[in-house]
């Protein structure tokens, strides 16, 4: 299912791809008549899985295609049976959360097999966590798509809903629409110009969370920032989308572009030097740490987006994904310890960049 | 006179070139009947120059050829007339000292025009400072050569000499033979393995001074260490040469080689990574500071000498020389400020390494 070197959201071209890596919407849903996941017994969890799997068939063909081409259906993955390395692949492709990859309780995920844009985690924090992930800035489109999936599911299942509060969820922060919209932004310009703190403050004032490359609890690495709404209760889906995608995101995109322009105008030499040094290290190092490679690839992405380096942007996206530990081990076809991964990571980067002609 | 990109001692192959960059001997001599330089009036200095220039003619053809091929004669350079940039070139080529390049008093230098292996500074600290510089470890050879030059000069000039103390010099540390022998060593193995302090201690115990790339008062850069004898009084030339070249130097050479071998045996990956990262920075940076380039070239030299990188060693030597400020400006044909030099330095390094096929 996981195709080597291909995760559509990270590699494909998308609107505003120079700043917005990907857009994500997710809905938290729970089946009425079952305890929340953390209160459910193993047999209840099994039942939940069975119920959900019963309605997955219709998804993918008609449902979940949206504006993009999409092949047939979703594929079910039983996470209890899946080896650790394969679970790691799903985390790195942002198809399941870290928490969902761990543990031994019955749980799984359904993934759209064509492009991995849709994933439905079952028995994560809520019974259902439906996610649509798209390259670039595409929240309207993603919301439309996830709406179709949700409609399909709700037409067949009894979902926990309160007329007063809205959708009921395991954690109160998700009650209401159960909607979280987020975007993965690449903000090297604002970080290098020292203005990233202003973004953090503006985000805080608007109840927007700023997280790292792997969402909740992860550190910022490689200038990748995941921004998402915090409040779901008492707001409509359009309210949430409007203030985030309609106002905040376009402002940040313009702010980042302006920082890049101003750096290139006033300090082109410094920027070029940093970008090319990063390229020099990437093309020559014999061992690369996971954090370091993200930082170096960030400079490379910055260089490509600003025209300093001439190479396809999707090569950078591909490297961001393939240099992660699980992907690396999958590519090598062997379990590797940390030291071995650093060597293989450096090999992969040199080979990929050499093939890309840089 | 100063041929672009060519300083024989730094570029040519020499014995033990992997560790010993160059060997140098110098004699301090003073004319009898004239005050020492720091006590001499301008007209006396002029007279000293005139006297010395009168005996330079015979040097170079027969004298000063030693074992190596050598073209005709020495060339006289009046340092008062020479522009600052050109004086800088002579300093960077180790043909005159920094002190000698400064000031406004009558002074000059005679340089063997074929290979720059011989230089005679006039009115530096002493009336005459005769120097022979050779690539690799070649102190015996250099001593033989400088002896011929000294014999030629002493046959025609009355040199200040005391039967009790030996040759008289402006500074008591040079009284006696007036001989200083030194070697420029490249010791990346001992520095990286943390054993360089032992060398310093051993040197101190043997009255051997450890200095940087530009001798007295200069910092160590790029793992280049200039080692020289401290004591000249009460010792014969053969005593000095024997303990330094016969005992201390070969020990250090073996110590450095053993450090390199042991690093490559036990930490080959780390070494290769450091060497290739340095190469990556050298081939990609858009600006390079003078200190940084020496450090990076040191890794490169280390890589070439240990077989990690396949390229001619003389390219590294050439870069060590040509990236110095005066050479860089001479190559560019313009006075450059520090920022401009960093850019031109990076350009030169990229171009040179690209031409060398690395």
What's a quick, concise take on this entry?
The structure is a homodimer of 358-residue chains. By secondary structure, chain A is an alpha+beta fold.
Structure write-up:
- The structure is a homodimer of 358-residue chains.
- Chain A is built from twelve helices and ten strands.
- In chain A, strand 4 (118-122) and strand 5 form a beta hairpin.
- By secondary structure, chain A is α+β, with helices and mostly antiparallel strands.
- The first copy, chain A, has helices spanning 8-11, 42-53, 84-92, 98-101, 139-156, 188-192, 196-205, 237-284, 290-305, 313-322, 325-332, 338-355, and strands at residues 20-29, 74-78, 108-112, 118-122, 128-135, 161-162, 166-167, 179-186, 208-211, 224-229.
- The two termini of chain A are 31 Å apart.
- Chain A is globular.
- Helices cover 45% and strands 15% of the residues of chain A.
- The first copy, chain A, has an eight-stranded antiparallel beta sheet.
- Chain A folds into two domains: 8-176, 2-Layer Sandwich (Creatine Kinase, Chain A, domain 2), CATH 3.30.590; 256-355, no CATH class.
- In chain A, helix 8 (237-284) packs across helix 9 and helix 9 packs antiparallel against helix 10 (313-322).
CATH superfamily of the largest domain in chain A: Glutamine synthetase/guanido kinase, catalytic domain
General shape of chain A: globular
Mean pLDDT of chain A: 90
* Alpha plus pi helix count of chain A: 12
CATH class of the largest domain in chain A, please?
Alpha Beta
Q: Describe the main β-sheet of chain A briefly.
A: 8 strands, antiparallel
The CATH architecture term of the largest domain in chain A is: 2-Layer Sandwich
Q: Give the C-alpha Rg of chain A.
A: 21 Å
Oligomer: homodimer
| DSSP summary, beta strand count of chain A | 10
Beta-strand percentage of chain A?
Answer: 15-25%
CATH topology-level fold name of the largest domain in chain A: Creatine Kinase, Chain A, domain 2
The rounded distance between the terminal residues' Cα atoms of chain A is 31 Å
* H/E element order of chain A: HEHEHHEEEHEEEHHEEHHHHH
Spatially, the strands of the biggest sheet of chain A line up as 2-3-4-5-1-8-10-9
Poorly predicted tracts of residues of chain A: 62-71
Class based on secondary structure composition and strand pairing of chain A: alpha+beta
**Biggest interface found:** A-B, 17 and 17 residues
């Amino acid at each position: 299912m996981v195709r080597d070197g291909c995760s559509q959201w990270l590699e494909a071209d998308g609107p505003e791809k120079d700043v917005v890596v990907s857009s994500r919407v997710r809905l938290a849903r729970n089946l009425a008549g079952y305890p929340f996941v953390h209160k459910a017994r193993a047999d209840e969890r099994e039942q939940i899985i069975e119920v959900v799997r019963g309605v997955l068939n219709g998804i993918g063909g008609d449902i979940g295609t949206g504006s993009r081409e999409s092949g047939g259906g979703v594929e079910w993955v039983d996470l209890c049976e899946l080896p650790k390395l394969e679970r790691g692949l799903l985390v790195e492709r942002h198809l399941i959360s870290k928490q969902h990859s761990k543990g031994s309780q019955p749980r799984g995920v359904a993934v759209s097999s064509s492009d991995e844009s849709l994933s439905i985690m079952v028995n994560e924090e809520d019974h259902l966590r439906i996610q649509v992930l798209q390259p670039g800035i595409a929240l309207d489109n993603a919301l439309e798509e996830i709406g179709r999936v949700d409609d399909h599911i709700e037409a067949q299942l009894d979902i926990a809903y309160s007329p007063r509060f809205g959708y009921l969820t395991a954690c109160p922060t998700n009650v209401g629409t159960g909607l979280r919209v987020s975007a993965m932004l690449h903000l090297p310009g604002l970080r290098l110009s020292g203005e990233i703190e202003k973004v953090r403050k503006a985000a805080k004032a608007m109840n927007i969370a700023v997280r790292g490359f792997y969402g909740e609890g992860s550190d910022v690495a490689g200038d990748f920032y995941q921004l998402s709404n915090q409040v779901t209760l008492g707001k409509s889906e359009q309210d949430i989308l409007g203030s985030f995608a309609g106002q905040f995101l376009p402002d940040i995109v313009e702010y980042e572009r302006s920082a890049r322009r101003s750096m290139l105008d006033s300090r082109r030499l410094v920027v070029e030097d940093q970008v090319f040094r990063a390229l020099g290290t990437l093309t020559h190092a014999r061992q690369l740490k996971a954090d370091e490679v993200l930082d170096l690839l960030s400079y490379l992405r910055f260089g490509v987006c600003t025209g300093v380096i001439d190479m396809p942007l999707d090569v950078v996206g591909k490297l961001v994904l393939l240099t992660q530990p699980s992907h690396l081990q999958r590519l090598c076809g062997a379990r590797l310890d940390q030291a071995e991964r650093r060597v293989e990571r450096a090999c992969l980067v040199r080979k990929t960049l050499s093939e890309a002609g840089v």
